[in-house]
């Protein structure tokens, strides 16, 4: 897995793919970079601000960031923002007040993007988005001009969703279910652009792979197991005629909650196909040895993203290397037979 640096701002090693945006003449691109261009000669200080920092993915991301910071001799402060938009802005202001050189952030709500960008710019602090996109002018990131997106380290939502949709299609075909008896639950927090990208790609990939038009039900959640379980339970109650269910979503939390709701609703494991995204909750089902509707999950390693984000910020601050528009980490589909070998760590 990834342990090396980005070199010259345009190349990644160990399987990372890099997408570099075109240079722009507009002030929007300058705003998106949101940091002074002066190289830091002394010790570098960075704040890593994360939404939902107690989720296993983000715990791993923080660990990767801390390990890379130790290797590079960086002072790193990790802050759990939860889902608090107000805390997001106050913590960025605190980082500025504490003379941090850079801020890496996973925003709980993209609506606070303009405030985050402005605070960083005013304070002369370099800004890098982790995982979720941020648009400088507050536009929905999915509709934001590329030159107004803050540089981002994470995963390709389209690629991830495509892998989920293809695996769900393979499981559906193997099960031999009738199209008319089956429904898909797509569960995600619908104002988070990267989540929408994942779900949309899953739908497209499933349709392409199967050639079937299976009924899809979009379920809005808070991207937590409890929220997904509650919302999916209500959906199932309203659709009792459905015999077989396919569940996917933005993350493992959505799929795990959905699978649990279906189990509680009386559906057996052989009538449910759940394909998670993260694998850190899916593996708990597999480790139990009991039949489960969680058939597979895409393993995404937050540790690698945290390390890469810190390395990218270091290269910018210490060596003046321009941050890439986007840098993506690799993913791997796992299931009950392969998750241990792949190195998945289950959530506590």
TrEMBL record:
<feature type="domain" description="Periplasmic binding protein">
    <location>
        <begin position="49"/>
        <end position="318"/>
    </location>
</feature>
<dbReference type="Pfam" id="PF13407">
    <property type="entry name" value="Peripla_BP_4"/>
</dbReference>
<dbReference type="GO" id="GO:0030246">
    <property type="term" value="F:carbohydrate binding"/>
</dbReference>
<comment type="similarity">
    <text>Belongs to the bacterial solute-binding protein 2 family.</text>
</comment>
<protein>
    <submittedName>
        <fullName>L-arabinose transport system substrate-binding protein</fullName>
    </submittedName>
</protein>
<dbReference type="InterPro" id="IPR026266">
    <property type="entry name" value="AraF"/>
</dbReference>
<feature type="signal peptide">
    <location>
        <begin position="1"/>
        <end position="23"/>
    </location>
</feature>
<dbReference type="InterPro" id="IPR025997">
    <property type="entry name" value="SBP_2_dom"/>
</dbReference>
<dbReference type="GO" id="GO:0042882">
    <property type="term" value="P:L-arabinose transmembrane transport"/>
</dbReference>
<keyword id="KW-0732">Signal</keyword>
<dbReference type="InterPro" id="IPR050555">
    <property type="entry name" value="Bact_Solute-Bind_Prot2"/>
</dbReference>
<dbReference type="GO" id="GO:0030288">
    <property type="term" value="C:outer membrane-bounded periplasmic space"/>
</dbReference>
<dbReference type="InterPro" id="IPR028082">
    <property type="entry name" value="Peripla_BP_I"/>
</dbReference>
